[in-house]
Amino acid sequence: MLLVMHKEATDEQIDSVMSTVTENGYTPHPIPGGERLSIGILNNKGPVDGSKFLALKGVKEAIPVTRPYKLVSREFKGEDTVITVSGVNIGNGGPTLIAGPCAIESEAQALTIAERVQESGAHIFRGGAFKPRTSPYSFQGLGLEGLEILSRVREKTGMPVVTEVLDYENFDMVEQYADIVQIGTRNMQNFSLLRRAGLCKKPILLKRGFAATIDEWLMAAEYILAEGNAQVVLCERGVRTFVNHSRNTLDLSAVPVVKRESHLPIIVDPSHAAGRRDQVIPLSRAAVAVEADGLMVEVHNAPEKALSDGPQSLYPEQFHLLCRQVQAIHGNLHENGFGGDAVSA
Ligand code: PEP
Ligand code: MN
């Protein structure tokens, strides 16, 4: 249930509603809006009887919430969430472009790629220092050294950086270096990691589990918001299906569905979905056409020598082309007034 307060509601009235919610055995969660405050009722085991709250002074409406997720839902918050990292917005209609190698391999490699992608229009640099690899014998990332390289890339280019946290134990360290902390597909339902992310002061990039439904994904995001961190960016990165023409199947229908169900921004990672370079530019164009708020793309200066995910990494000049194409598509959509129909429909 969501209690929408009158615009003129006083602080005393708000406090009294919060206390009444608590006295009834629920948890109140204030949600500031543009004009008025709403109070979400959490921790209810069944339907909440709205009549006793409607009778309280200052309460305008009591709206039943039908979805299992609350804080991430559009029912709780109508306006889009926009996340700002060092002056870069994610969720303002985008597309915000995140690019870089799968893994940080050396300072020279990271800086070369960062400069190239920045020239082409990337806003945020990506690169893994801790890599979740299928084989224990594959390159696992440079760890702390990789995080230090990321800091130097940020210093030199001014671009904020996103990097993955693999486990609870390393969260403090990754959080110190990253501007956005990534939780990968394999950890989407690592609930202790999600709760830790909820205590983090930095935005979280939450990738969709490769076998997760959208409800499960949004419930994972709910864990983070429930602990107090409202800065979550969702990332569709493909789900596992029966096909073998790509590594995963990019589920672009997730974009309008998530936009209808949630106020959180959603970006698309075509690289891990495709697993092969030749599909990355077409899938990026499509993602921007369905109004994803951004893209996260793997780029390498020498993909044939990359220590991970070389076959799906774009050459810098391909990323340059990608940027021109998606900017053209985005501009065209908005000039012609096609934008925003996912939410209003
Ligand atoms: C990544 O972005 O580096 C990554 C490992 O992605 P995913 O978790 O989607 O496989
Ligand atoms: Mn990768």
Please state the overall shape, judged from the principal axes of the Cα atoms: elongated
Shape-level CATH architecture of the largest domain: Alpha-Beta Barrel
What is the CA-CA span between the terminal residues?
23 Å
The CATH topology of the largest domain comes to TIM Barrel
Largest sheet: 8 strands, parallel, barrel
SS-based structural class?
alpha/beta
The chain-level mean pLDDT equals 95
Beta-strand percentage? Answer: 15-25%
* SSE string, helices as H and strands as E: EHEEHEEEEHEHEHEHEHEHEHHEHH
User: How many runs of DSSP E, i.e. beta strands?
Assistant: 14
Count of domains: 2
Radius of gyration: 21 Å
Enumerate the spans where pLDDT stays under 50 for 5 or more consecutive residues.
none
- CATH-level-4 superfamily name of the largest domain: Aldolase class I
Assign a percent range to the helix content: 25-40%
Main-sheet strand order equals 7-8-9-10-11-12-13-14
Ligand identities:
phosphoenolpyruvate, manganese (II) ion
